[in-house]
Write a structure and sequence with these properties.
Elements: H1 20-29, E1 39-42, H2 45-56, E2 63-64, E3 70-72, E4 85-88, H3 91-100, E5 103-107, E6 111-112, E7 118-119, E8 122-123, E9 131-132, H4 139-145, E10 148-152, H5 172-178, H6 180-183, E11 188-193, E12 196-199, E13 208-212, H7 218-223, E14 230-237, H8 243-253, H9 259-262
Parallel strand pairs: 1-2, 1-5, 5-10, 10-11, 13-14
Antiparallel strand pairs: 3-4, 6-7, 8-9, 11-12, 12-13
């Protein structure tokens, strides 16, 4: 367990002082809950803070990369290199790790549909797209081999669509059509957005709303989604960060408050 570093000046770490960005960080951190000794691969800032927070609190066995080829020990600020390196993870070994299932990635989709198909590649027809984007990247291999979650900083109907234009990350309906091999290791865990937290616990693994962030209604989330959402038996309010989590976020992991640039207050 990482020791909490305190500063000399008193700081308000009351959970009620948490910003939307900090609530999203903690929601992302809880996506890795109980994962054990696997590689956490967060993409973009909020998931990165979340993964470091998870290792510093509930999941000390998580492995964290510096984004190049080293595994860092302890907890270090975003934007800095780890002070201590505990392992070596060159690019060529990542594919072995992916195939083994010992990784949990949190990606940022451009489009995401009700069964978890994700698009990172193009908007419009693939042969003549309106917008060419990143390409398939590692999304197909990630989704069929190991746990995958998603982070969406702006929940809206442009992202949450009835059907993605290009399937990059595999969803449950696509995997089912492809056969049992594609379904064998498919494990879409969590979708965290600036409005709430969703999973794929609906009928036939349809996307389901589980939490709404403080001040957000179920109706607002549904209005910002391009397909009907399944609902948990009780859609609760997203849990607030604890004082320890807030101290780690504010003083240790993101002391420059870069998180507030990625998630704007509503």
């Amino acid at each position: 367990m990482t020791e909490v570093i305190t500063t000399g000046a008193p700081v308000d770490h009351d959970p009620d002082s948490a910003t939307l960005a900090e609530i999203c960080v903690v929601a992302c951190a809880r996506a890795w809950a109980g994962d054990g000794e696997i590689l956490a691969s967060p993409i973009t800032l909020i998931p990165t803070i979340g993964a470091r927070l998870a290792r510093a609190t509930t999941d000390p066995d998580l492995l964290l990369s510096d984004g190049v080829a080293s595994l860092g020990a302890g907890t270090w600020p975003v934007g800095d290199a780890p002070a201590v390196v505990e392992g070596w993870l060159p690019y060529r070994t990542v594919f072995d790790l992916v195939a083994s299932g010992r990784r949990h990635v949190m990606m940022g989709p451009v489009q995401l549909d009700r069964y978890g198909n994700a698009n990172l590649s193009a908007i419009g027809d693939f042969d003549r797209p309106k917008r060419a984007l990143l390409g398939m990247r590692g999304a197909p291999g990630n989704t069929v081999n190991h746990p995958t979650s998603y982070w969406v900083p702006r929940h809206g109907t442009r992202v949450f669509v009835e059907k993605v234009d290009v399937v990059c990350g595999i969803g449950y309906d696509t995997a089912k059509a492809a056969g049992p091999t594609a379904l064998q290791f498919l494990d879409l865990r969590r979708v965290v957005t600036n409005l709430g937290v969703l999973d794929f616990g609906g009928p036939d693994h349809a996307m389901r709303l589980v939490f709404t962030h403080p001040g957000v209604t179920v109706e607002e989330v549904q209005e910002a989604t391009g397909f009907p959402l399944a609902l948990a038996d009780e859609v609760a309010t997203t849990p607030l960060p604890t004082p320890v989590e807030l101290q780690l976020i504010r003083e240790v992991i993101d002391p420059k408050a870069l998180r507030e640039r990625e998630v704007k207050p509503r």
